[in-house]
Design goal:
The protein is an all-alpha fold and 186 residues long. 62% of the residues lie in helices and 0% in strands. It is globular and about 50 Å long. It starts with 17 loop residues before the first helix and ends with a helix.
Length: 186
């Protein structure tokens, strides 16, 4: 009989530590668990670092849950997340989990992409996801949004992005994809 994660109500502010955080992330989470974990992590730099490290867990559920909690944190300071942009990009490009990829890319939208540090491999990666019908709509949509942000300083990349989007079968696009496509085509 394996050990089951404790329900959120069994934790107190005094007892939340990295071991309990990891145990909680390794099990199923509900919205109330997310709210509780966010409350624990906000304002606690050590737990925030533990949560960040959990993003890279080899265990799919732990990594996915860490990314889910991270997207709900209200106190992710721009500088803190910005310092981790490279690692987040690397993980988004290599993870096999569609859930984690979408959530990491959503986190990346909260960072600033500078013209002088633009990563061509990440632009190519985002471009490659846009036309793929086998990718979830959420990933394709966030790829389009990231591409728009990444390409804004480069007219030639914007032209390439518009070309990719113009080749998408408009009648088959979900409302989310259609909305982002309209912004790109402006």
């Amino acid at each position: 009989m394996g050990s089951q994660p404790l329900p959120a109500c069994c934790y107190s502010i005094e007892t939340m530590d990295s071991i309990l955080l990891e145990k909680r992330l390794s099990g199923p989470l509900h919205r109330s668990d997310i709210d509780f974990l966010c409350h624990q992590v906000n304002g606690n730099g050590a737990l925030r670092e533990d949560l960040y490290r959990a993003l890279f867990s080899a265990d799919k559920r732990t990594g996915d849950n860490a990314a889910w909690v991270m997207t709900h944190l209200s106190e992710i300071h721009d500088g803190w997340l910005q310092e981790r942009q490279e690692a987040l990009i690397d993980e988004a490009m290599k993870t096999t989990s569609a859930t984690r990829r979408r959530l990491l890319m959503t986190l990346l939208l909260r960072t600033t992409f500078k013209k002088e540090t633009l990563r061509g491999d990440f632009v190519d990666f985002c471009f490659s996801l846009i036309p793929r019908a086998d990718e979830p709509v959420g990933i394709r949509s966030v790829s389009m949004r990231l591409s728009l942000v990444l390409c804004r300083h480069y007219p030639e990349l914007m032209a390439e992005l518009r070309e990719i989007v113009s080749m998408l079968p408009q009648s088959e696009l979900s409302p989310a994809l259609r909305s982002v496509a309209k912004k790109i085509m402006r």
